[in-house]
């Protein structure tokens, strides 16, 4: 089975660069290089001394050392630097899955998390999270976690903070995971792209190490507005990471030394920028939630604030088709969102809250003033 078109990316390619208010992205609005160097107090002359030779295949050692500090009891030899988390996931799935293997994950999901396993012939076990958005309960929930482990899957994919719902692992979830993994014989992949943007003061919780056969993916790109650097990583047992590195040799082989250098400097000096980004992110989420509660955003009937990461799902008025709504919202209001149909479900839109505060505020104002026109056209 081949890979299908990537629904989300197709839409992003069409609209993200021109949108007056971009709520379709799953990351923080991207910085310019001069902004980043200012935040990091970086001397431009350091870039001038940078060798443009190939980086080591595993990633430069000082970067792997810095990444290993983000986890408990992880050595640099357990880190593989990759071209974004997309490459990390692609490698992991190809090493872990064969035709007929059961793969369990939360639904809806980011397409790469299930499309690549499907292309390898894996069977999917989907655990529906949408009812959690309709309840006052937080976290993934005991029943959903039990269902994730049901039938002893070859691979469990645990994406958190969750894209697209914004659900995080609460304390009770962590305790349940500890119990469920204690005798689990197979593999768990913790996809943890948004750890830098959690409610915790510094880093969100990582599930890596809960069991012997656990691996984790991570990145700086979406959380810090540097998606163009394309730096991600894969964490796992040392011997397994060696196999992953060998497979990477057939893909990108190495990553850009310029991207590695900037990623290293960012991780070494991340906290002031991280704090500023969280402040803007929280303000945008609060403003959207407030506007929804006051009924100022035509088409939206409910919204549960994400507890981590950049994205959340908002429920649409009954009967509205998410793609038609998203198309008209962009055309008439200038606000770009992703329809839940691009996540192969219906009745919601996915919102990204990484836009600048000013553009976000102006976008909500236009939505409030012009959104009724969108609904009228949809109801014709």
TrEMBL record:
Enzyme class comes to: transferase
Q: According to the UniProt entry, what is the EC number of this protein?
A: 2.6.1.-
| GO MF annotations, alphabetized | transaminase activity
Instruction: Cite the entry's keywords alphabetically.
Output: Aminotransferase, Transferase
Q: Which PROSITE patterns match?
A: AA_TRANSFER_CLASS_1 (PS00105)
Which co-factor is required?
pyridoxal 5'-phosphate
Q: Which CDD domains match?
A: AAT_like (cd00609)
- Is Transferase tagged as a keyword? yes
Aminotransferase class I/classII large domain residues are 56-360
Organism's domain of life? Bacteria
Which Pfam families does UniProt cross-reference here? Aminotran_1_2
Q: Key word Aminoacyl-tRNA synthetase present in the record?
A: no
| Family note | Belongs to the class-I pyridoxal-phosphate-dependent aminotransferase family.
- List the protein's name: Aminotransferase
């Amino acid at each position: 089975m081949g890979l299908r078109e990537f629904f989300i990316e197709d839409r992003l390619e069409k609209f993200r660069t021109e949108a007056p208010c971009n709520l379709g992205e799953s990351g923080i609005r991207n910085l310019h290089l001069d902004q980043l160097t200012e935040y990091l107090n970086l001397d431009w002359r350091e870039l001038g001394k940078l060798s443009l030779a190939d980086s080591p295949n595993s990633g430069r050692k000082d970067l792997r050392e810095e990444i290993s500090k983000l986890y408990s009891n992880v050595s640099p030899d357990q880190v593989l630097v990759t071209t974004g988390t997309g490459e990390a996931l692609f490698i992991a799935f190809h090493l872990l899955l064969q035709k007929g293997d059961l793969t369990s994950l939360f639904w809806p999901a980011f397409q790469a998390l299930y499309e690549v396993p499907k292309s390898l012939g894996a069977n999917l076990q989907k655990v529906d999270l949408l009812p959690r958005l309709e309840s006052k309960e937080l976290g993934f929930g005991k029943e959903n976690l039990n269902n994730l482990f049901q039938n002893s899957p070859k691979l469990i994919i645990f994406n958190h903070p969750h894209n697209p719902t914004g659900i995080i692992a609460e304390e009770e979830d962590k305790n349940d995971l500890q119990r469920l993994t204690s005798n689990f014989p197979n593999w768990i992949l913790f996809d943890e792209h948004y750890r830098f943007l959690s409610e915790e003061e510094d880093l969100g919780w990582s599930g890596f190490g809960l069991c012997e056969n656990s691996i984790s993916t991570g990145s700086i790109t979406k959380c810090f507005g540097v998606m163009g650097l394309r730096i991600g990583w894969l964490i796992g047992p040392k011997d397994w990471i060696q196999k992953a590195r060998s497979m990477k040799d057939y893909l990108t082989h190495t990553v850009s030394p310029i991207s590695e250098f900037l990623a290293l400097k960012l991780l070494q000096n991340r906290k002031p920028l991280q704090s500023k980004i969280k402040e803007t992110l929280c303000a945008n989420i609060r403003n959207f939630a407030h506007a929804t509660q006051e009924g100022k955003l035509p088409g939206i009937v409910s919204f549960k604030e994400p507890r981590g990461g950049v994205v959340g799902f908002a429920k649409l008025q009954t009967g509205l088709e998410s793609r038609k709504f998203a198309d008209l919202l962009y055309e008439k209001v200038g606000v770009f969102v992703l329809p839940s149909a691009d996540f192969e479900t219906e009745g919601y839109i996915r919102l990204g809250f990484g836009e600048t505060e000013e553009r976000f505020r102006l976008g909500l104002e236009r939505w409030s003033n012009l959104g009724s026109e969108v609904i009228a056209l949809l109801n014709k």
